[in-house]
Design goal:
The chain has 123 residues and is α+β, with helices and mostly antiparallel strands. It has 2 helices and 6 strands; from the N terminus they run ββαββαββ. The protein has helices at residues 32-49, 84-97; strands spanning 11-12, 18-20, 53-57, 74-78, 103-107, 116-121. Strands 1-2-3-4-6-5 form a 6-stranded mixed beta sheet. A hairpin with an 8-residue loop joins strand 5 and strand 6. The protein is globular. The N and C termini lie far apart (35 Å).
């Protein structure tokens, strides 16, 4: 398990083990199915890695045209709190849990906007 810990400035949410990276992250208008999926994933994340999942974007921020963020059907979650081996494990868990819930997961750790996973409703 990595010893990296998220900063003490994270903002708690109503979902257990889910924190917002900053006050501007807007998770309130995010679709219920997506919120439920994130809540489930956060429980697994906490159980495996001993820390909370951090959401870096909901229905806020700048995204590409047509992004599902603008309709509350996408969120981004932080990846740099995990070491490389833990990132592989968590990505495999996302890939395993997402199809039956109609969720798509995009590995955006190599983007200039900052390393994260983009999670969205497919419908």
């Amino acid at each position: 398990m990595s010893t990296k810990q998220p900063g003490a400035f994270l903002i708690p949410t109503q979902l257990p083990h889910v924190y917002l990276a900053e006050m501007s992250v807007d998770l309130d208008p995010v679709a219920g199915e997506l919120r439920a999926f994130v809540g489930d994933v956060a429980q697994v994340y906490f159980y495996l890695f001993g820390r909370s999942l951090v959401v870096t974007s909901g229905k806020d921020g700048k995204h590409t045209g047509g992004s599902k963020h603008y309709t509350g059907k996408a969120i981004d979650v932080r990846s740099h709190d995990l070491d490389p081996g833990e990132q592989v494990i968590f990505l495999a868990i996302l890939a395993y849990m997402s199809p039956e819930k109609g969720i798509g997961v995009f590995d955006e750790r190599g983007l200039s906007s900052g390393p994260h996973w983009h999670i969205e409703l497919l419908n």
